[in-house]
Amino acid sequence: MLHRIIPNRIRRKTAALLGAAAFTAILAAPMPDVRAAEEPFVLLIQPILSEEKTREAYGPLCAYIERLAGRPCTVLTQPNFLAYWDVIRRNNYDLVLDASHFTDYRVQKMGFSILAKIPDSVSYSLIVPDSHLVFDPTELVARRIATLGPPSIGAARLSAMFPNPLRQPVIIEVASAEEGMDLVVAKKVEAAILPTPLVSQRMSQAGGIAVVLTTEPIPHIALSASPRVAREIQERIRDGLLNAAATPAGRRMLEGIGFEKFDPATPALYANQSNILKTYWGY
């Protein structure tokens, strides 16, 4: 058998070329995305307040979650409930502090886990200017009533007050509860239906409004986590929220968001709350 003899200089040159090619291949190869672990958690908040005030109000919660999880956190807001409903269904967020019907929807449809809730329950109040004598919602047929847009709880409760399609109010959609109360005080609308805690706060600070009725209470807003969030981190966040009042950092967070504490919560507490969403497109 004949063996081809390759001169040393050719062997050296070939080795150099192969080495250069290998180095070039390494540079060209896709690098592992080391940033993935540092991608911020997205904390979605329902649009009860304006976007700016929502980020301001829940920034302390986001910072506290960042501290607990060891990963950046950013607050995601939307200008209204129509846009919010679209974001909900896209499911491109990690954590969400939300109303009972949306919380149950995510548990049932997306496998979210409820980590903790704000204590007690929450209701909505139908309000009018304090100079107007209104005793029953039927007196507001064909009148302007401000509400957060569908599919908010307020819009659903208002719809239930006027079951007759021939006897309806004129719905004025607002971008925030504050805007709704401002319209009532300015008498640009005859009424509004808004979260009772915000109504009570406004009445104690400035007045100008009167309550016609208050709806049945429902479980208060809850924080839930996507199944994409590791179970260990979910437990860390849950424990940190439930024990927040026992630590300086936790107390600062609670003071920042305006609540005394977080309570334990289970899916059973929110079961069937999402039923009011069944009439909306995309359910």
Topology readout:
Elements lengths: L7 H21 L12 E5 L5 H19 L3 E4 L4 H10 L4 E4 L1 H11 L2 E5 L3 E2 L1 E6 L14 E5 L4 H9 L8 E5 L2 H9 L5 E5 H10 L3 E6 L3 E2 L2 E4 L5 H12 L5 H10 L9 H4 L13
Parallel strand pairs: 1-2, 1-3, 7-8, 7-9
Antiparallel strand pairs: 3-12, 4-12, 5-11, 6-9, 6-10
Helix pairs in contact: 2-9
Can you tell me about this structure?
The structure is a single chain. The chain is globular. With 283 residues, the protein is of the alpha/beta class. It has helices at residues 8-28, 51-69, 81-90, 100-110, 153-161, 177-185, 196-205, 231-242, 248-257, 267-270; strands at 41-45, 73-76, 95-98, 113-117, 121-122, 124-129, 144-148, 170-174, 191-195, 209-214, 218-219, 222-225. It has two domains: 38-121 and 219-277, 3-Layer(aba) Sandwich (D-Maltodextrin-Binding Protein, domain 2), CATH 3.40.190.10; 124-216, Periplasmic binding protein-like II (D-Maltodextrin-Binding Protein, domain 2), CATH 3.40.190.10.
